[in-house]
Each structure stands twice: as C-alpha cells, then as structure tokens.
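Supplementary Note 2. Why include the ligand at all?

Several targets in our set were suspected to adopt different conformations when bound, so apo predictions alone were not considered sufficient. For every target with a known small-molecule partner we therefore ran a joint prediction. The input for magnesium ion is given below.
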Amino acid sequence: MSGARVTAEGDRTDHLAGAEGAVLRADELVAGYLPGVNILNGSDLYVRPGELVAIIGPNGAGKSTLLKALFGLVKIRSGSVHLEGEEITGLGADKLVRRGVGFVPQNNNVFPSLTIGENLEMGLYQAPKRFKERFAAVVDLFPTLGQRRNQRAGSLSGGERQMVAMGRALMMEPSVLLLDEPSAGLSPALQDEVFVRTRQINRTGVSVVMVEQNARRCLQICDRGYVLDQGRNAYSGTGRELAQDPKVIELYLGTLST
Ligand code: ADP
Ligand code: MG
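The joint prediction is reproduced in token form.
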C-alpha cells in the first residue's frame, strides 16, 4: 500500500519522511485564539523546494489558522516552525516577509482605495528600491496588472483582485508563498485561472502552500496534500493518492467538491 493514509495518532516518523531539506516545516503545532481553546492540535507540515502543497479539509478545521500561525499572525502555543532549517517559531509577519515568506489572506487582501501599482508597492515597502525590477517580474506573470496599473483595486472583479493580492505577495520574491483559498467566490472559469496561475508561479521556483475549498481541483495540481480535520492532519499523501483514497473521498471530497 502507498501509505497515503496517516491517522491522527499515526506514525510521525512515516509522516515526516521527506521533511529533510524542507523550505518550510512545521512540527506539532498547537495554536488558538482564546485562552484554553486550541484550534491547532498538533499539526505537522513540510514543503520541499519547488513543491506545491495543498491543505484541504472541512470548514472550521483550522486551515486558515494554520497559515496564520505559519505567518506569525496567530500565537503558537507549542511546536515549532523552521524556514530553510532555521527556527522561525513566533517570528512576526514583517520579519517573515523579509526572510522570504509571502502570504495572501482569504479576505480583504487588497487595498481597495489604492491603485494596482500602489498595491504592488505596498508589497515591497520593506525593499522599495527593488520596485522596478520586481514590478517587471510580477507583470510578466500577470500582464493585466501592468496594463491596469493606475486603476483602483476596489473597482476590480474578484478574480482580478486575487491576481493583485498574489502579485503583491510576489513583490518581495518569496521562496514560499502561503495562499488561503485563492479561488473562493470566483466563477468556475476564474477559479481555473487561479489554479493555472498558481501552478505557473510555482514553476518559477516558488514553493507554495495552498489552502483550498475546491479540493478535487486542488489535488489535481498539487504535488502533495494534507487533509486537516479538527486541527490535526487526518491524511496526507500525493495529490493523486489522496484523490483516489476511498476514505478521503467519502469523508472529504464528496461534500467539499462542487
Ligand atoms: P478553516 O479555515 O479550516 O475553515 P479556521 O482556521 O478559519 O478554519 O477556523 C478554525 C476555528 O477557529 C473555527 O472554530 C473558528 O471559529 C475559530 N476561529 C477562527 N478565527 C478566530 C478568531 N479570530 N477568534 C476566535 N476564534 C477563531
Ligand atoms: Mg479558512
């Protein structure tokens, strides 16, 4: 058998086989918002250089909390996070951005009153001298952003805003990009564009961790995935292994996919 199935109390050694040389690695994360209430209950994750890793799971499982914990926006109560072998547990978002972690939150991820160009500038506020070079690189990936540079982000469609948000996170040339439900609320055609774009970004060498509600589609394009349930890894494996696992289908794909 492939060993794709990892139970909550499963074999950690097996689960973390392959974590060696990871760009980003989280071990046994416990985190939450309210005192005494843990949302993450010992979640593990790793991303190897150049990988696209998916996180799927039911609503409220803690997927957004996991990304926020990795990005220093939710306090980690125990466990550790390493970036390229160095411990970054508890480091703030601004420091993480400087060290090559990019994050696109699920909601409110653009400044609506600013233009596209200004939004991209905001992404580079820690390194403004690199604007010309990085703007060119981002516009290369998202030509529309260059053509509409002076348009206010608030006047854009949901799909276009998502491109601005991703573009902004790419301005600092991250080595790893965390995306929280980039396709949420978009039409099927635009959802597909988001997946294609994400793959494209990934192919430029950026490692990606992507939380997605469109689980089936996400498992098709990712290298590996994790199913998060109640703040724990319920299953992990390659996208194909997960998409074909009868338990994963029964428990998570039947209702999650549309
Ligand atoms: P997912 O992204 O998997 O849908 P979340 O990480 O957003 O799940 O939420 C996991 C749990 O944490 C939910 O029970 C949610 O109500 C709770 N939660 C999320 N954000 C907050 C917050 N800011 N304060 C308190 N509880 C929160
Ligand atoms: Mg979420």
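Residues 1-10 have pLDDT under 50 and may be disordered. Strands lie at 24-31, 40-47, 52-56, 76-83, 86-87, 101-104, 176-180, 207-211, 224-229, 232-238. Comparable summaries for the other entries are listed in the accompanying table.
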